[in-house]
Amino acid sequence: MWIISRDTNDTYGHPAGDKVLNAVGMILNDCTRHNVDFTFRYGGDEFAAILTQTSEEQAVRIMERVLHSFQQAGFSGTTLSIGLACCRRDEKLTWPENAACMIDRVDKALYRAKSEGKNRVMLDVEGC
User: What is the CATH number of the domain that holds 100?
Assistant: First the structure.
């Protein structure tokens, strides 16, 4: 899950913000595996990706590719911060407690990415 700078709408207007959001959705789809990973818009300026059968290292590389593609798209003044959390294959996730924990972990990683300068990928290493 990540957040795109809200300043885009404030600075360039909502049509420009919508263009950025559409581009992020396309970049996300281009950088993930079709019929394997799940990508979706999570909220106003947030997206989420569930990368199945993916190691931490692979997930970081995929999200770095997303970030690089976004930066190459040339949206001046717009940042992309990505928070990432992984669970082990042997870790059984139950609903809703563990899902809420995963979202919390991603949020913490996202906050770190934003507070450490934005335009970066941060992996949560603390766990639940």
Answer: 3.30.70.270
